[in-house]
Design goal:
single chain, mainly alpha
């Protein structure tokens, strides 16, 4: 979360409020990422996109350099949550696509294919043929 906070300083106030709330429980990475997603959707709704490039650069780094559980969290905990929360709150997910870098864009597409019923699981389209 430290890398994500550094890339998106406007999230710091919301993050600190969350940390001091009764609902916070340490170690729940996907819930933590959900808080960030809510903030990003709020930013997009207000047209405040200046931090998105830096933030998505960190997400790309998580996809490329992270341990397997970090890569999965970047895809399922962040990208999938972003798609779902944005769509359920009147924000077209495509508005985030220009900020996706290469690896993140691949996983974004995999999520889209899975939810469209074109793939049996997220990542199936990235498997090398045997």
């Amino acid at each position: 979360m430290a890398l994500l906070l550094a890339a998106c300083p406007s999230f710091e106030r919301r993050w600190n409020e969350y940390l001091s709330s009764d609902t916070y429980e340490a170690g729940l990475l996907y819930i933590d990422l959900g808080e960030l997603v809510h903030h990003l959707v709020d930013l997009m709704q207000r047209g405040q996109t200046s931090e998105l490039a830096a933030l998505f650069a960190v997400v790309e780094r998580l996809h490329v350099e992270g341990e397997p559980f970090v890569r999965e969290a970047a895809t399922i905990g962040f990208l999938e949550t972003l798609q779902n929360f944005a769509g359920n709150n009147g924000v077209d997910c495509e508005r985030f696509e220009p900020y996706l870098l290469r690896e993140s864009a691949k996983w974004w597409g995999e999520l889209n294919r899975f939810w469209a019923g074109e793939s049996p699981y997220v990542g199936a389209g990235l498997k090398k043929p045997e």
